[in-house]
Write a structure and sequence with these properties.
The protein has two domains: about 250 residues, Zn peptidases (Aminopeptidase), CATH 3.40.630; about 70 residues, OB fold (Dihydrolipoamide Acetyltransferase, E2P). The chain has eight helices and 16 strands.
């Protein structure tokens, strides 16, 4: 029996197996590559990769995609990297947890089945509103796998949760850095983003219930939610547009580690990391109920800029206007339940500055 058959039965690869068994409960199973790398299938869409020899100081990676089922390109990127590893094209050098977050939603080609799973982490899966939902069970399960994985390995942990956006974006690729009070974005992580062709960073302003916020706050990981372009169905992605992140992740898996970049060059010019365009959150807009009015068109692109004084939303008690400097909008979506985020208003900052307690 081949390694693929042991891990994925009659399916040709990890993605096909995950879609075929999307709602199944499967036993753990392991296989070993000729070079000694061990691959353990913890559950459908969850693989733990362990190299034969872990070098002292080796980093530890969690790579996830498909938390939203219709965001298919990052799923195809991770599946492609795993296929290269299984074919023996390069050796794995660091412990890695690979996750396809929401296989049932992937099968349905929908963002989610019952509720947005990327609002169910950091313990939010225990909320009464989510009780009994398969996506809440899956979020709890993924937290458990990540906690066990992080406990088993002592190296510096990074988590990259890969997404594509519902709507167009004036900045096609951008990353979100979860809020942890007093934390500064490491220069080498900024360099990694740039090598991934991600040139924009958004500093979040409060602890969230996203997958990346969970791993950042609970596991001490350097975590990023990375938006890589526009949602497309399986088979319709132009994967050449994702070569930057694919090449950067492949280098990390091969043990090249994070790039090292000085804070400035010898001639005083900003370093590569210093050229990352960075934004901060000014205001989070929530759906306040039946009197809520959102004055942003449904076709507004991410990073659309609004001038001072523009009314963005209002209800019977509040009217939010853009402040003294222009503000841009990200993730606008009026069709969310009461109490959930409709969008974020953001503005540029000069550098990835230390986050302050709001």
């Amino acid at each position: 029996m081949t390694i693929q058959q042991n891990l994925f039965d009659t399916s040709s690869d990890w993605l096909e197996h995950s879609l075929k068994h999307a709602s199944s409960v499967l036993p753990e199973v392991s296989a070993e590559l000729p070079n000694g790398t061990r691959i353990t299938r913890r559950a459908v869409g969850v693989l733990e990769l362990t190299p034969a020899l872990i070098q002292p100081g080796s980093e530890v990676l969690i790579l996830s995609a498909g938390v939203h089922g219709n965001e298919t390109a990052p799923v195809e990127v991770l599946n492609g990297l795993l296929s290269e590893l299984l074919r023996g094209e390069w050796p794995l050098a660091c412990p890695t947890l690979l996750i396809l977050g929401n296989p049932p939603a992937m099968v349905a080609c929908e963002r989610f089945v019952d509720a947005n799973m990327n609002r169910m982490f950091h313990g939010a899966h225990n909320k009464q509103a989510y009780q009994g939902l398969p996506e809440a069970t899956r979020a709890r399960q993924l937290e458990m796998f990540c906690q066990r994985f992080a406990t088993a390995h002592s190296g510096a942990l990074s988590h990259y949760d890969l997404h594509t956006a519902i709507r167009p974006s004036l900045r096609e690729k951008f990353a979100l850095y979860p809020f942890v009070a007093g934390r500064k974005v490491p220069e080498n992580q900024c360099s990694f983003l740039l090598k991934s062709q991600v040139e924009t960073l958004l500093l979040q302003h409060s602890t969230a219930t996203t997958f990346a916020s969970f791993s950042s706050s609970q596991l001490g990981a350097e975590s990023f939610t990375i938006e890589l372009g526009k949602v497309q169905p399986f088979g319709q992605n132009d994967l050449s547009r994702f070569e930057g992140v694919q090449n950067a992740l492949r280098a990390r898996l091969q043990g090249n580690g994070l790039p090292t970049t000085p804070e400035s060059t010898s001639d005083g010019e900003p370093s590569e990391a210093g050229r990352l365009m960075t934004f901060e959150v000014v205001h989070e807009i929530l759906n306040t109920g039946k009197e809520f009015q959102f004055h942003v068109p449904d076709d507004a692109a991410n990073f659309t800029e609004y001038q001072p004084g523009t009314v963005i939303w209002e209800d019977s008690e509040t009217c939010y206007r853009v402040g003294n400097v222009p503000e841009a909008i990200v993730f606008p979506n009026r069709n969310v339940p009461v109490g959930q985020r409709v969008c974020l208003m953001i503005r540029p900052v000069h550098s990835p500055a230390r986050q302050q307690v709001p």
